[in-house]
Amino acid sequence: MTTFSFSLHIGETGPLVKGSEPDRLRIPIPCHTPILAEGDQVLAGTKIAIANHDGSGDMHAPLAGTIKDILPESMLIKVSGKDRAKAKKPPAEDGETIREWLRDLGVSVKNITRSTTLIINAVPPEPGISIYEPLLRDYRKTLELGLETVQRIVESSKIFLAAAKGNRANAFANCTVLHVTPIYPNGLDEIVVKTVTGQEMLPGTLPDDTTILSVKDLYFIGRVMETGRPITETILTIDNQNHLIRVGTPVGFLVAESGTMVQPGDRIVMDGLMRGLTAINLEQGVDKDTTSLQLIREDKGLKPTDNFCLGCGECERHCPARIMPGMISRCAEFKQFERAENFHIHSCIECGICGYWCKAQRPLLQYIRLAKYELALLRETKTPSQPLVEFIETGQNGEKE
Amino acid sequence: MIQQLEPILTVSPPPHVHCGRSIKGYMSETLMALLPAVVMAIYIFGIDALRVMALACTVAVITETICSKLMKREQAIDDFSALLTGLLFAFLLPASSPWWLVTIGAASAIFLGKMIFGGLGANPLSSPLVGWAICRISWGGFMDTNATMLTSSLAAPLQQLKYFGLQSIQSIQSSSLILGEQLGGLGEVQIAALLAGGVFLLIRRHIRWEIPTGFIAGILVTAWIYQLIDPTTYASPLFHLLAGGTLFGAFFLATDPASSPIGCIPSVLFGLTAGAMVIIIRVYGIYPDGVPFAILLTNLFTPLFDRIRPKPFGGPHKLMQKGMEDAT
Question: Across residues A204-220, what is the average pLDDT?
Fold first, then answer.
């Protein structure tokens, strides 16, 4: 447990390995609406679900097969056949037309908006995740095509490439390379934006006229432009090797491929060890934004407790957002979510460092996420059309929390 | 998707790695840091010191067990926090304390100092000091080390300074003070041993430099100011640093995690305030040693110190608007 290092330095990594074909795919669609029904035949590249949120990419079938099951958060496809949907031709128009075309093919275009500064994040998001390395080394052409395409929408005058000191990073044309100290959490978007622009933005927001994309984003946009086919893959670091994996590949299949046996009680972490979520079972499929897959044995890894906060302040001293995770967790623990706002909960960049240092082994990040979620719900129910009326009513009923 | 599939996996929130520290580790290393002072106390005050320490620790642990039971809580005595509170409390007592005083003090340190506020981490005041304050105020005569240990040949520097003036302490050597050859709480006067323990805690990063540094600086500066005012009445800063429980307070009492502020600047201010208060109580108060009361008083200011915060990342932001917040 204590051997974990916060260093973002990546040593030599091998080439990108293409993952093998699973016999079934469980495609996560938590924020999508399925447009096909059970029993429908799909080709590789057929659109199967539409994004609910503005700017998120639609979901496509990575392989041909039959839809066997549709659940609220996932869709099961039994793979059969090799047929592929017809490739689409990129539009010649710039701006909104090509943006919509990319979104239609599964690209998340939330951050692809017109702005003067474009930041390309090549800093590993978390220790041990080296997905950008093989891309920067072996797929220059695709990345350049991706950047060119993005520039047709963003039209920025300044491009920055943020890279961790000591890691490989060759600049693109008209692009300034900026080195950041290779220590977690310096690779998170919020911190990278701060390093490049000098502006601290509330997590989840970007400065006006600045946008940030990762190397992985550029690669997949380049791929879409090259092939005219939708994004149906992601890049995962598994055991220091980078794999090109189809979205929806069950984690159990990937773990078995890597030659490890899963014991009961183990956890499979999707994404890094500081922020990643665990798979519910071996059938869960990887998502488009999954960056890594790690197996943690039952006796290793942090077991969160419901110990009381000691008040030692370790979390506060290590917090990159300069807030008091301990106090926020106390508020969340006793359901005083609105009080958590007094401790600046919205400044939290959810890096998980507080939980790493907590002597009481409290699940601090989880408490913060819970409070954020509850606050969002509260705001939805409490957003009054006429604040004054509600205020009077509540006052009359004497309902005080 | 939630269906039972073998093997059953652990589902747990991030982070999945940890620095490896625990409450129990923190408590046991603090106990280890106190060990040299325990040995020195037994060496200087004899078996009586051992009696007081053993009784205080036992009573503290038993009280916590009973409280947890009454509060229908999971028993947590195996984290050694009650043991630590008991030992810290014993360190403040004279070796001559009668058994009932030790028992009442240790029990109230746990009950009134800690459990009544919700247990570990919720105490607004340093819990050993609560027990000490109750005993000191209720049975002052028994808590007075000078009066109860007349047979001892050791000097009682703070009492002599208080009642007989600066002249009476001229003969006391700093070196004998450092070695613990003075009357006072049985553990709090083991200056050299406590210093070693404090340095150990600092190296192990269980305590931070801010509070001890602020505390010691507060004492030295305030004592120095008084000495400048009138060198014939007020003792030197070094004397104040070495006499009584100054270093014990600086490294072990003021640094209590729950009752001290957590930021860097607040911690320094907290230490400075407590240190200055020690000298003010020693000079004007009716109690010879001001350390426990100074720390207790400063504990009350902790929530205020904690309000000194840097600007949060991305600036303060609230989802709830002002009017809505009032309405809830």
Answer: 91
Phi, psi of B186, rounded to the nearest 5 degrees: -65, -30
CA–CA–CA angle A388, A389, A391 (5° rounding): 65
What are the pLDDT digits (tens) for B15-63? 999 988 999 999 999 999 999 999 999 998 889 999 999 999 999 999 9
Measured between beta carbons, the chain A residues lying within 8 angstroms of B326 are 391
For residues B253 and A70, give the distance between their C-alpha atoms in angstroms, rounded to a whole number: 61
Strand order in the sheet with A175-180: A175-180, A158-164, A117-121, A210-214
The interface residues of chain A toward chain B in range 67-106, judged by CB-CB distance below 8 A, are 71, 73-74
Report the residue from A273, A347, A378 with minimal CB separation from B17.
A273
Interface contact A321-B321, CB threshold 8 A: no
Going from the C-alpha of A318 to that of each of A207, A314, A327, A356, B316, the distances in angstroms are 25, 6, 14, 10, 19
- Structural domains of chain A in order of their starting residue, each with its CATH number: 96-226 (3.40.50.11540), 314-396 (no CATH)
Task: Give B-chain residues touching A311 at CB under 8 angstroms.
Answer: 121, 257-260, 262
Task: Provide the H-helix boundaries in chain B.
Answer: 23-45, 47-70, 81-91, 99-111, 127-138, 140-143, 145-148, 157-164, 174-178, 191-203, 210-229, 237-242, 246-248, 264-284, 291-300, 302-305, 322-327
- Mean pLDDT of the B65-76 span: 91
Q: Is-contact B231 B224, C-beta < 8 A?
A: no
Summarised one tens digit per residue, pLDDT across range A362-371 is: 999 999 999 9
Cβ atoms of residues A108 and A234 within 8 Å? no
Interface test with B, best of A26, A262, A314, A364 (most B CBs within 10 A): A314
Query: Hey, what are A11's tokens?
Result: 């040593």
When CB atoms are compared, the residue of B258, B261, B263 closest to A310 is B258
Contacts with A357 from chain B: Cβ below 8 Å = 19, 21
The chain-wide mean pLDDT, for chain A, equals 87
Q: How far apart are CA A338 and CA A347, in angstroms?
A: 14
Assigned fold of B24-305: Ammonium transporter fold (1.10.3430)
Among B242, B266, B243, which residue's Cα sits nearest to residue B254?
Answer: B266
Q: Which helix (H) or strand (E) holds A193?
A: helix A189-197
Q: Contact B314/A356, CB-based, under 8 Å?
A: no
Interior CA angle at B194 toward B189 and B198, to 5°? 145
Order the strands of the A59-60 sheet from edge to edge.
A32-34, A47-51, A59-60
Helix (H, G, I), strand (E, B) or coil at A365: helix
CB contact under 8 A, A281 and B312: no
Contact A387 B324 (CB under 8 A): yes
Inter-chain CB proximity A74 and B1 less than 8 Å: yes
Tell me the shortest Cα–Cα distance from B306 to chain A, in angstroms: 10
Q: Considering the entire predicted model, what is its pTM?
A: 0.88
CB contact under 8 A, A262 and B22: no
pLDDT of A386 over the 50 cut: no
Backbone angles phi, psi at A398, to 5 degrees: 70, 25
Which phi and psi angles does B300 have, rounded to 5°? -65, -25
B-chain residue closest to A75, CA distance: B1
Q: Across the interface, do A363 and B5 touch by the CB < 8 Å criterion?
A: no
Angle, in degrees to the nearest 10, between helices A325-333 and A364-382:
60
Evaluated on CA atoms B4, B5, B10, B11, the torsion sign reads negative
